[in-house]
Amino acid sequence: MLGAVSRHVAALRPGASRAFSTGPVVGYQTRLSQFYHNTLRDDMMILQYVPPQVRARQEELEEARLKAIKENVGGTPPNPLRKRQQTRPPKPRVAESAAHNTPYVDKVTVHIRCREALQNKHNLLSALMTLQVVTGQRAEVIKAKNDAAPWKLRKGMPIGAKVELTGDRMYEFLDKLVEVVLPRMKEYNGLRMDSGDGMGCFTLGFDNSAIGLFPEMEMVYDMFPMVFGFAVNIKTTAGHNPAGRLLLSGLNLPFVHARKPATESLML
């Protein structure tokens, strides 16, 4: 036994080669992260597959549409008196479905806008501690970039707090939001199908009653003198809204269609 210990100590001396890896320790994967890498990623690759013939036809139609817009065929002629024409940057081309470019959640930003901080900056402490309790990560202060006289706002004044989540903490927060918070909300049906910024990113807004539904806030809710609403911005690598909706719906985030107004029944 002493020989085994001496060999082990000799192996740990400086300059000696080690039999084990000295790389960074890989942390555990959350339930939602395992579900994405083991199940959802492959399913999305299959659902987004487009045959080459159909993709070629879609590209021809898109080129014809862009050419018609450029030549202004059948549209309103440009105004010669308008000096500056507002042009939007072209959307990126949707890549072919493959394992290396399957959309995934890149970053989740949780932020709170605190109007009460304009009167007293110490009111921002509740927002900072709320985000730290809910997300498990230290929040940072958001400061005003410009002046706004109607709101008595000056550049550099604190107006909110935010937390940017990535990796396992991001999946942990999404798991709590989808599995615990949203089912306990009575008046929340889901995101609208026409929501999104066109690049596959979505934003959810909640009032101050939703912050108390997180498991971490239930025991310490009475300790906070002020409770604020919050917004969650989900940034994905989808590139367009349909792929982003497919990804988030696979993560159990609900989407609903806009309801049409009820029509009056015919009187017979």
UniProtKB/TrEMBL annotation:
Protein family per UniProt: Belongs to the universal ribosomal protein uL5 family.
Transmembrane segment boundaries: none
GO biological process: translation
The Large ribosomal subunit protein uL5 N-terminal domain, residue ranges: 100-154
Pfam families, sorted: Ribosomal_L5 (PF00281), Ribosomal_L5_C (PF00673)
Keyword Cytoplasm belongs to the record: no
UniProt keyword terms in alphabetical order: Ribonucleoprotein, Ribosomal protein
Protein name per Swiss-Prot or TrEMBL: Large ribosomal subunit protein uL5m
Annotated region described as Disordered, given as residue ranges: 69-98
A GO-annotated cellular component: ribonucleoprotein complex
PANTHER family cross-referenced by the UniProt entry: 60S RIBOSOMAL PROTEIN L11-RELATED
Segments forming domain Large ribosomal subunit protein uL5 C-terminal: 158-255
GO-annotated molecular function: structural constituent of ribosome
